[in-house]
Design a protein that fits this description.
The chain is of the alpha+beta class. The chain contains three helices and ten strands, in the order βαβαβββαβββββ.
Length: 198
């Protein structure tokens, strides 16, 4: 092949996978343990214990999340090439999920512009259960992201076994779901939505 410039033009939403610092994770766990405002009626999950974070927690969260958001927005502007680049980010809501045996999140989307999931506490028992699962799916407690139709030689699906501190940041309309598990443990994750503007 002669020396020609080649670009691959990717389709679909930008899904970021990263991890938060340990002190950030532990502080979020501490703050989450004090919550009591039920948020179930606003969420798709079949999860009994889902609580809303208050204003002070939101300020703390946004301060710590700033470098992640700046990186994502910068990459999003390059990836999408908006006519007017996105510059401003507003946290619209923030909640925690205490997921227990048999609970799950069905396929759903979020509101606003961007959404995220952070895994605050993933018990080893759930990780082991997923490792020992025998089927074509990755197994119990995984998070799935899907975009578009299934086609030969096209990846339109990610199925991920989360661990402590994992952070996923993605377009709010990206369909995703969480598989149930059988372990007698509680897995703690938190999520929320951001509004992006120019």
């Amino acid at each position: 092949m002669s020396e020609h410039t080649v670009d691959y033009l990717y389709f679909g939403p930008l899904l970021m996978k990263s991890s938060i610092e340990e002190d950030f994770r532990l502080e979020l766990l501490k703050r989450a343990s004090k919550l009591h405002m039920n948020y179930n009626s606003n969420l798709a999950g079949h999860i009994e214990k889902e609580y809303y974070f208050d204003t002070d927690d939101k300020h703390y969260f946004m301060d710590k999340m700033k470098p992640y958001m700046e990186r994502y927005i910068n990459d999003l502007n390059k990836y999408i090439n908006f006519s007017k680049p996105k510059k401003h980010c507003e946290l619209k809501n923030l909640w925690v999920n205490y997921m227990q045996k048999g609970e799950y999140n069905p396929p759903h989307i979020h509101g606003d512009s961007l959404s995220f999931v952070i895994y605050l506490d993933v018990p080893q028992e759930i990780t082991n259960e997923s490792k020992n699962y025998i089927a074509t799916h990755e197994g119990p407690g995984t998070i799935d992201f899907m975009f578009g139709e299934t086609m030969p030689d096209i990846r339109n699906h990610y199925n991920i076994k989360p661990k402590n501190g994992d952070l996923f940041l993605f377009n709010a309309l990206l369909k995703h779901w969480v598989a149930p598990f059988k372990s007698q443990k509680t897995r703690i994750s938190m999520s929320g939505n951001f509004l992006l503007t120019t």
